[in-house]
Amino acid sequence: MALTEKLPKKRKTASERHPLSVAFGSYLKELRKAQDKSQAELAYDAGLDRTYISLMERGMSAPSLLVLDTLAKSFKLSMTQLVAGLDDHLPKPLRRKTEPVKRRSNEATLALSADRPQGNRRSPLR
To answer: Along the 126 residues of the chain, how does pLDDT read in single tens digits?
Structure first.
């Protein structure tokens, strides 16, 4: 193979896309359509390329923090507001759990017992 030959770029298939990128892409597209903007208009407002907006919406590319900041400014949102709306679009395994963390019974009883000696690192079994 000659050094001048270029190998074709392998395109990502749907199974290779990260679910978080796909969820952000659908959320971005929903925000863009809610403000009645085209990809080109959003790209112009954010100072990005239209094809990059398309890649993000399809879940083929994940934005950096700087890109998230420029997207938030173009939607007239804070970065916190932009990311907070993403929770509804995440698949179940990636969503934050809202129920309290369950502890083992012995951890909970040790934390509540007042008769437990404090500051002693040695095991009471020694």
So the answer is: 556 677 677 666 656 788 888 889 999 999 999 999 999 999 999 999 999 999 999 999 989 999 999 999 999 999 999 988 888 877 777 776 666 666 665 555 555 555 555 555 666 665
DSSP character at residue 18: -
User: Cα(first)–Cα(last) distance of the chain, in Å?
Assistant: 70
Helix/strand number for the chain, H first, E second: 6, 0
Q: Is the pTM of this model over 0.90?
A: no
Say how far apart CA 39 and CA 33 lie, in whole Å.
9
How far is Cα 59 from Cα 35, in angstroms, rounded to an integer?
20
